[in-house]
């Protein structure tokens, strides 16, 4: 009987987090735990997992360094963490749903780096870890840093250029010919492209593919004429390919490597991934991003609000302490999340619905404050960077000197 009452109370508490009106404001004193604290590292890991799971475009972000953290212990139990994380993108597309720790970092010359601000509530007693809001700003490494180290490295280019679309089509043709899939696939879009001079111009592409209605039992002269299957039925894949043109031998060398993701609902099965390596070989690799054996927390029913913006290539690095405006803006120029949910504030303190206070009932849920302007007061922050290459190291944001 006691167990039943406890379970009912836990369920009621979770539901009333979103439904109950504000009661009274909890203390606003923020702590500055160390950036190497175990609880802080866990908060950063969980926040980044949920950021990656929330996205449908781009590449999985990997943690480079905890730049700053402020902690707001809640009146009853649990804490809200206000994190600033230095991140880099990886070679894994977000549709793979892989853990960021299991993804390969990009080579130094191809790195896209930046910072994420995130607000996450963690309550171990009630098995809750909920990412409330996040904002990420990224940019490619400025070319001048690359040229000093690797003047012959491939140069990133616009993926919508016709030559890269053609390279993707050629790589896909090789995949369609050699794979054991039952239907042909078509190019959905090119997500990344670069060019390098080898024995001739070489084009490197990364692109998404989608299953079509055309069976491989039929001879198809033009794959582009095949209609894609509906989103409920079509498998989606991610490919890396290259087309090297040899002026010496007057030949083309085409390579392709694709992963096909199983049919799944990303909103409910973000932690699972089934990939088929090509050509001709398949392997299953099931991973669970959230929760898992090493992460006992359960997904929270409230929606996460956030965005990731990638700036165009620039000759100079930006200051991530003064983040550029988001894709959506108020008339005063302050960023807001793309969709308002409940009374959750944006990171700059803007209220998202009818000027409701940035406050939740402290008895049933966390108090979410505007993101603090003051960085961590701990001398341990920023934390130590993880495996930073020589190009990226001088670009890491610096903590302002105390006056």
UniProtKB/TrEMBL annotation:
The keyword Nucleotide-binding does not apply. Residues 1-18 form the signal peptide. One of its GO terms (cellular component) is extracellular space. It comes from the Eukaryota. InterPro entries: Cystatin_dom (IPR000010), Cystatin_Fetuin_B (IPR025764), Cystatin_sf (IPR046350), Kininogen_Fetuin_HRG (IPR050735), Prot_inh_fetuin_CS (IPR001363). It holds the Pfam family Cystatin. Residues 266-305, 319-365 are annotated as: Disordered. Residues 24-137, 148-259 form the Cystatin fetuin-B-type domain. Residues 273-297 have a biased composition (Polar residues). CDD domains: CY. Its main location: secreted. It is found in: Secreted. The keyword Secreted applies. Keywords: Disulfide bond, Glycoprotein, Repeat, Secreted, Signal. PROSITE patterns: CYSTATIN_FETUIN_B (PS51530), FETUIN_1 (PS01254). One of its GO terms (molecular function) is cysteine-type endopeptidase inhibitor activity. GO terms for biological process: binding of sperm to zona pellucida; regulation of macromolecule metabolic process. This is Fetuin B. It comes from Aquila chrysaetos chrysaetos. The gene is FETUB.
């Amino acid at each position: 009987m006691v167990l039943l009452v406890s379970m009912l109370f836990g369920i009621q508490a979770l539901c009333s987090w979103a439904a109950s009106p504000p009661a009274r404001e909890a203390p606003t004193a923020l702590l500055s735990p160390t950036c190497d604290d175990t609880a802080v590292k866990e908060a950063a890991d969980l926040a980044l997992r949920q950021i990656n799971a929330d996205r449908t475009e781009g590449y999985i972000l990997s943690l480079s360094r905890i730049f700053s953290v402020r902690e707001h212990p809640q009146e009853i139990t649990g804490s809200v963490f206000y994190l600033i994380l230095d991140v880099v993108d990886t070679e894994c597309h977000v549709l793979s749903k892989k853990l960021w720790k299991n993804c390969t970092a990009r080579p130094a010359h191809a790195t896209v780096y930046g910072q994420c601000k995130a607000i996450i509530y963690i309550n171990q007693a009630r098995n809750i870890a909920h990412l409330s809001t996040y904002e990420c700003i990224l940019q490619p490494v400025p070319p001048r840093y690359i040229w000093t180290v690797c003047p012959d490295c491939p140069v990133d280019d616009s993926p919508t250029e016709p030559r890269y679309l053609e390279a993707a089509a050629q790589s896909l043709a090789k995949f369609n010919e050699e794979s054991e899939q039952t239907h042909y696939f078509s190019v959905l879009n090119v997500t990344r492209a670069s060019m390098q001079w080898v024995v001739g111009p070489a084009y490197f592409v990364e692109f998404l593919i989608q299953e079509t209605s055309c069976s491989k039992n039929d001879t198809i002269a033009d794959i582009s004429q095949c209609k894609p299957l509906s989103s409920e039925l079509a498998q989606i894949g991610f490919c890396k390919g290259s087309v090297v043109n040899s002026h010496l031998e007057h030949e083309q060398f085409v390579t392709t490597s694709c992963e096909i993701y199983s049919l799944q609902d990303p909103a409910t099965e973000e932690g699972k991934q089934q990939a088929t390596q090509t050509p001709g070989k398949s392997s299953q690799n099931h991973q669970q991003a959230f929760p898992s054996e090493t992460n006992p927390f359960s997904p929270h029913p409230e929606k996460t609000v956030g965005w990731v913006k990638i700036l165009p290539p620039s000759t100079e690095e930006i200051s991530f302490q003064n983040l550029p405006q988001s894709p959506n803006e108020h008339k005063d120029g302050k960023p807001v999340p793309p969709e308002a949910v409940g009374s959750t504030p944006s990171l700059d303190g803007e209220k998202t619905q009818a000027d409701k206070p940035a406050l939740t009932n402290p008895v049933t849920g966390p108090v979410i404050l505007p993101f603090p302007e003051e960085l961590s007061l701990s001398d341990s922050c920023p934390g130590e960077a993880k495996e930073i290459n020589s190009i990226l190291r001088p670009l890491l944001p610096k903590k302002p000197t105390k006056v």
